[in-house]
Design brief:
By secondary structure, the protein is mainly α. It has eleven helices and no strands.
Length: 259
Amino acid sequence: MDWLQTILLALIQGVTEFLPVSSSAHLILPSQLFGWVDQGLLFDVSVHLGTLLAVILYFRKDLLLFLSGLSFSEETKHYRFEMAALILGTIPAVVFGLAAAGMIETYLRSGWVIAFTTVFFGALLWVADKAAISNHQQVSIMHGLYIGLAQMLALVPGVSRSGVTITAGRMLGYTPEASARFSFLLSIPVIGGAMLLMLLKIDWQTFEFSNQLWVGMLVAAVFAYLTIHWFLQLLDRIGLMPFVIYRFILGAILVWVLI
């Protein structure tokens, strides 16, 4: 890869990992438009590590509070419940990912699949946001499991992990902010697990480290952190509709590029 490809792909990964707009859809466009070769597993690992570090850093206080919940005192009951919801929400994606990763990789990574899922799940986000009548704040343990079941769909390219989990949160009656926060916290074990799977596929005998991996990780981390902060700060003012419209436009562009 050249430096332009390195920085652009890391920036795209950092920004789109946590917005409900599908990172897969964004990563296919540059390769189609510029004819770029695949960036390789090592680069994927480095940018995922950057986004993982960003979300851990942003929610560091919450993660420390979850640890305080292990004291099993009455005052920390809230954090134990939320941690249990996150653990239950993680299990479906792990099980489904291990069982169906090969099939998805073989049959569902085409540009047309990504174009369809970008539009379809954008429409689903719109419906969920408009139909929501409740405004709960704390995700219950069982609802954490339901959001985790929805997260399984994110293994299909173009669905968007944050998009489908926020959609599920809105369908279950949680505020956009509460849905987004739970989605971001749920990303920590999922991104970490995805990194481990990628690391297992790397041929370490031919391993070569480069400065581009460091730069990719740093760029992804910085833009992921800023995106999380910006999204949570502005969500109550702009809502989710701008992202729905954006997904429709992106899907149309993908169809135009693929024709």
